[in-house]
Structures are given as structure tokens and as C-alpha cells.
Amino acid sequence: MEPRALRRTVALILVAVIALGGGAWGVQRWRHRPGRPIGADDARAPAGVRIKVQVLNATKTRGLARRATMHLRDRGFDVVDVGTDPNGRDSVLVLDRSGHPEWAKLVARALGGAQVLARPDSSRYLDVTVLLGGAWRPPAEPFYP
Asked: Cβ contacts of residue 87 below 8 Å, gap of 6+?
């Protein structure tokens, strides 16, 4: 291969790598941009507030609590415990543990809507407990190249 053709090929590859890297960086920046408009089902934790959430999978579907954890963390909620609930459920139930019903409602909205009940329990050091039922469908996962 001629030196000029080799330099041109290397330059094109370099430009392609830089363009792809910049594009991936731009997608990440857009996804987490604070001023991005929020839809009705895309509730977020208030800025400067730490809402401690426990997510329990009450189904036989493996990995459902992990997917809900990622979904809630993307919206600013602090998921501090993930586990399994042996009692099966069909629907999602959000329990207010700390006497902040507005926080429980935010979590319920972030999950696409759920029943919210007050079940105070100061021994758990949690604000909200989520019991995932079989009716909850996780949103599509974003593709990160």
C-alpha cells in the first residue's frame, strides 16, 4: 500500500473512532441532563433529598428487582436493599415506611403507577419498600455501545 493511501486510511479510522466516542459521550450526557423534560410516568427524586428505597421481587421472574433498582437509581432514588419476597404478588405495592407519603407516591409514579400504603417501620431505616408484582414490566434497557 502506498504511504499516502496508508495515511489516508489511518486518518479515516481515527476520525471514525473519535466520532463514535463523541457520539456515545453525547448520548450519555443527554440521558442524564438535569434540564431534560420529564414525562408523567418519569418521576424523579427531588434534588437534594435522599429517598432510601428497598426493592423486593415478589414474583418468580429472576432479575426483576435488579431491573427495578436500575430504573429507580436512574431517576435519583437511593436503592439501599434488594431482595426477594416469598409471598407472590400480581401487582406492584409501594409501602411508605417513614411517614412521607409524597415520596412513596413519587416512587410509585416512577414505576408506572402502583398502589401506595402507609406501613411505618422506624426499625428498617428505609423511606419506601417496593414489592414488585408479576404485572410490572421493566422499561426497555438503553443500549450503551
From this structure: 58
* Tens digits of residue pLDDT in 55-68: 999 999 999 999 99
What integer pLDDT is reported at residue 40 of this predicted model?
43
- Would you call 93 exposed, middle or buried from its count of C-beta atoms within 10 A (0-12, 13-18, 19+)? buried
Residue 46 cell numbers, joined: 427531588
Q: Quote the distance between the C-alpha of residue 124 and its chain's center.
A: 22
Task: Kindly state the percentage of the chain with pLDDT values over 70.
Answer: 82
Q: Dig out the grid coordinates for 103 from the structure.
A: 415520596
- CA distances, 3 to each of 6, 7, 10, 13, 20 (Å): 5, 6, 11, 15, 26
CA distance 135 to 142: 21
